């Protein structure tokens, strides 16, 4: 893949839209202002963990790369982050997760009740703000995302035998839980551009989201808690089957397969057991295969950028691909 | 209050829009069609417990009473029911409720996870279907409802001392959790009517919703499980303070007050203790006061109907008021 090396940082990528992102942060604060003290507390917590505004960055960069200059882009970018926050809050509640980006989740810090209602609140706020913008088109694009996301999650819940999960189902899940919002953010950024550019922006976002999610699942195998903010091997511990394991399941010997199955029979697998399967997946080429797939999606995202005119924003979108696959957390 | 006596039944009210309601049921089925078997199972369960389509009935009646005849009204009515179902599913999950209308809740029959995701799914579907209708106005009206509802629920969660709950806070809660959706359903029905009629429709729905919710809370004091599908005195058991108790709290003697406080100190109050407070509230006039307030809101709803032209649909809306305050469940 062409483009700069691992040294790409998020602030580099965000430089062309730094002013816009400051407005997005302000918009986000305005959108979730509430006069109930408990909600203020949750909102403060959410804004602290709001992270890197990666999706708003993609929206603003696509917007600029397509030669657009609509002030509503800042509101749309904040709305995309709001939808992202809403899904994080409900995901953590569904998974009973304790940590997210190294910080306590809403369900662990407050309660299950608070997280269900706050997720609903954040999503409702997103729709109210969307309606204020007087444009049906972004509502159409973004409503489809949460629809797709929830169907994907239900499909995951309904999968009884985790070890039957195949690569096609895995990609479907990545697409629904991650790539759909990336694709929508980029498409919304390009909403008023020529149809070919709008399609290219969407294709870029979709492929980038796939590369991003595969990399996320790889990091669960390769990085420790200090880096990712989550314990290493957490997915295996929670019996979540991701690409590195799927890649090798078919080619394991009988004894190796049995070690994996033993872990999946254990309600709470021990650290040693998890570390053993992590090593097994690495030695049998699972990590390499997942890296190849991430690189293939990264190349697809690069290809989509060829349909946008050359600009600093387009180069930043190119850097975002490198960032997505080479980041450490 | 004028109008027919207690003999008003729901089918009577629904007669002028019976054909439309059949289409609403079909629309609802179409909207939640999913190809994931687990979702089909949950959807079948939801459609079985979908109840009486009271909100869609109000939307269609208001629509007709305002002289409108837009086929989209059927889709809007189905969407309103979808939003209602989404809030029920999350409410039951938040409250860990086991029964709803005498049937097991989604959280009890399936799981907490399924109910969080399914609630999100139903609401997402509602927004996708709203966007399909190519009209921002109903999105504006309905997005505000869920916003209001979630703020109301957070306010309730944040109330530390249940016995400090006063009538004003109680009305705010009724308005956010019930009247807001009634008002929106009626306003959406009258969306293309003259502004005065649209305002009247909204006022009618708001007052009707208040009367409906107060009656609901009264039924918790007066009716047994066989009738309401919920154990009697459940609100008290769960430390929920509603109008009958609020009405008398200020005028209880010290000994009486202590009996109430004892119940609220008990994590799981015994049946006898609940029955004792129910009797106390009745004897000190709490039920009478709540009935008076319900009647006052019913009169307000009647008054709003004067701004709509005479029609069979308007008479059915009048009957709906009687039904709301005189129903047994």
Task: Explain what this protein looks like in three dimensions.
The structure is a homodimer of 329-residue chains. Chain A is an all-alpha fold and 329 residues long. Chain A has 17 helices and 2 strands. The first copy, chain A, has helices at residues 10-14, 18-31, 37-48, 54-65, 72-95, 106-109, 112-132, 136-158, 167-189, 195-222, 225-228, 234-237, 243-249, 254-265, 271-283, 286-305, 312-326; strands at residues 99-100, 103-104. The longest helix of chain A is centred in the middle third of the chain and has 28 residues, at 195-222. In chain A, 50% of the residues are buried. At the A-B interface, α3, α5, α7 and α8 of A face α3, α5, α7 and α8 of B.
| Physical arrangement of strands within the biggest beta sheet of chain A | 1-2
Rounded to an integer, what's the Rg of chain A over CA atoms? Answer: 20 Å
Number of helices of chain A: 17
Share of residues in strands of chain A: under 5%
The total count of strands of chain A amounts to 2
Instruction: Pick out the low-confidence regions of chain A.
Output: 1-5
The residue-averaged pLDDT of chain A reads 91
Topology pattern of chain A, helix = H, strand = E: HHHHHEEHHHHHHHHHHHH
Oligomer: homodimer
Sheet of most strands of chain A = 2 strands, antiparallel
Structural category of chain A: mainly alpha
User: How far is the N terminus from the C terminus of chain A?
Assistant: 21 Å
Approximate helicity band of chain A: over 70%
Largest interchain contact: A-B, 40 and 41 residues
Name the shape of chain A in a single word.
globular
């Amino acid at each position: 893949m062409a483009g700069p090396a691992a040294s790409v940082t998020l602030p580099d990528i965000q430089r062309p839209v730094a002013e816009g992102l400051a407005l997005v942060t302000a918009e986000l604060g305005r959108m979730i202002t509430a006069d109930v003290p408990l909600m203020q507390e949750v909102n403060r917590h959410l804004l602290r963990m709001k992270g890197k505004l990666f999706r708003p960055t993609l929206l603003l960069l696509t917007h600029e790369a397509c030669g657009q200059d609509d002030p509503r882009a800042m509101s749309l970018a904040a709305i995309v982050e709001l939808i992202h926050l809403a899904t994080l809050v409900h995901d953590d509640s569904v998974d009973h997760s304790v940590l997210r980006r190294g910080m306590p989740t809403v369900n662990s810090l407050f309660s299950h009740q608070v997280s269900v209602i706050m997720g609903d609140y954040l999503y409702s706020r997103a729709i109210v703000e969307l309606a204020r913008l007087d444009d049906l088109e972004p509502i159409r694009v973004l409503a489809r995302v949460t629809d797709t996301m929830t169907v994907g999650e239900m499909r995951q819940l309904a999968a009884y035998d985790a070890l039957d999960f195949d690569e096609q189902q895995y990609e479907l899940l990545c697409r629904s839980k991650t790539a759909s919002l990336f694709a929508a953010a980029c498409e919304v950024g390009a909403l008023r551009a020529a149809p070919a550019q709008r399609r290219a922006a969407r294709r870029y976002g979709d492929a980038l989201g796939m590369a991003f999610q595969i990399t996320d699942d790889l990091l669960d195998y390769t990085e420790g808690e200090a880096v990712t903010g989550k314990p290493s091997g957490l997915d295996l511990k929670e019996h979540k089957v991701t690409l590195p394991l799927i890649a090798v399941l078919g080619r394991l010997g009988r004894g190796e397969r049995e070690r994996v199955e033993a872990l999946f029979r254990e309600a709470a697998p021990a650290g040693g057991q998890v570390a053993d399967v992590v090593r097994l997946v690495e030695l049998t080429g699972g990590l390499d295969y997942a890296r190849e797939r991430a690189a293939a999606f990264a190349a697809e995202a690069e290809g989509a950028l060829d349909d946008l005119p050359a600009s600093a924003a387009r180069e930043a979108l190119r850097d975002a691909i490198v960032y997505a696959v080479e980041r450490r957390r």
